[in-house]
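Let us walk through a complete example step by step. Step one is to write down the protein sequence. Step two is to encode the small molecule, pyridoxal-5'-phosphate, as a SMILES string so that its atoms and bonds are unambiguous. Step three, shown after the inputs, is the structure prediction itself.
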Amino acid sequence: MQYYSTNKSAPSVDFKTATIAGQAPDKGLYFPEHIPVFPKKIIENIEGYSNTDIAFEAIKPFVGNCIPDDVLHNIVKETINFSIPLMPINNDIQSLELFHGPTLAFKDVGARFMSRCLSFFLKNEQQKVTVLVATSGDTGGAVANGFFNVPNIDVVILYPSGKVSKVQEQQLTTLGGNIHALEIQGNFDDCQQLVKKAFTDADVTSKLFLTSANSINVARWLPQQFYYFFGYKQWTDKNNAPVIAVPSGNFGNICAGLIAQASGLPITHFIAACNANNTVPNYMANHTYKPQKAIATISNAMDVGDPSNFIRIRTLLAHADKNIHTILSSESISDNITKATIKNVFEQFHYLLDPHTAVGYAALSNYLQQHPSKKGMVISTAHPVKFYDVVTPIIGQPIHLPSIVQSQMNAIKKSTLLPNEYDALKNCLLQLI
Ligand SMILES: *Cc1c(COP(=O)(O)O)cnc(C)c1O
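Step three: the predicted structure of the complex.
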């Protein structure tokens, strides 16, 4: 498989080069030259296949011959060594729980896969790589956990001070070692701007080999297809394929779902569920893409005003030559509705949603009201305990802390507080040499 840049001014590269580089040299995002066809016989008997075999089949064409089959099979197996159950909430909506990994959010899948690929690619090289990433909350912990102690890799994580939850902050600041957490006095978009600037600063890039570990990176983006297949595997009514609502911020997760669908996975429709950051819902309504400044909400991992992966969705749909509205709709859900949804679903169905999943649930139930013959699946992107301070006042009772979170909460925070100024970041980076 070759990958071209969405800016079309850089050479095509293979999976290894795209993984190591992160972004294309012309600042475009790498996109696969074609969408492979997933074997129909596996779709038709999907319950008979193990998750590892399904995931291996899904990712193999994208990796090409950059990783030997036995190594790739093992990477996939390690990536998904936790359960991903589909839980019924009521008659119409089921929840695909992606929060049983080490940092209790779906980003564990992409981060674990990417770190293992990168580690394989760097094994026999003298080169040291610095993974530089901005996080709105969950990326940081997943990347820190996925890359902790991986040889030849330093990780630098920028996060917006005071805008991530306590659990999120602990997960990304307490590991130490090769993981460096920078607490930026700004919002997520500021963090992303600083990271972008470092990637274009020849002073830095001549001394450090930088790569990204956000969903721009194909090795983090593409394995997110796996759980759409696992969701379908557990979906009992195969004659009425699910409508899937995806809580969306940077749009990497939903775009991976769209790739899985384009390769042959039966999915009726996608809903990109957004919080108050409504750039994409606005685009769907009036066809102009107008990036905005990020607005802080209670679903903070989705506080993105200019989603970087939306270009990939447009590229994919241009390939497919289909009207965007038949495949995708998008809705913006306010914090008030999000809170009411958490409360109602808890009281009526005894199921606790985290704020991100609640945005997805609300958008999905609105859609199903308009389309009563359909059934839906919400992608449950995080465990509610990650947003303890938001969720417990809404339901009026404490929630149990899983033991993994208890030990994370007791660990000591190690981070560097920095002003929202590029020179401050640059100094930190140059100290890593
Ligand atoms: C990152 C994240 C999202 C948004 O995912 P994107 O791929 O950026 O659209 C949604 N929910 C949670 C809990 C997240 O951590």
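Step four is interpretation. The pocket of pyridoxal-5'-phosphate is lined by residues 105, 107, 137-138, 215, 247-253, 301-302, 356, 381-382 (CB under 6 Å).
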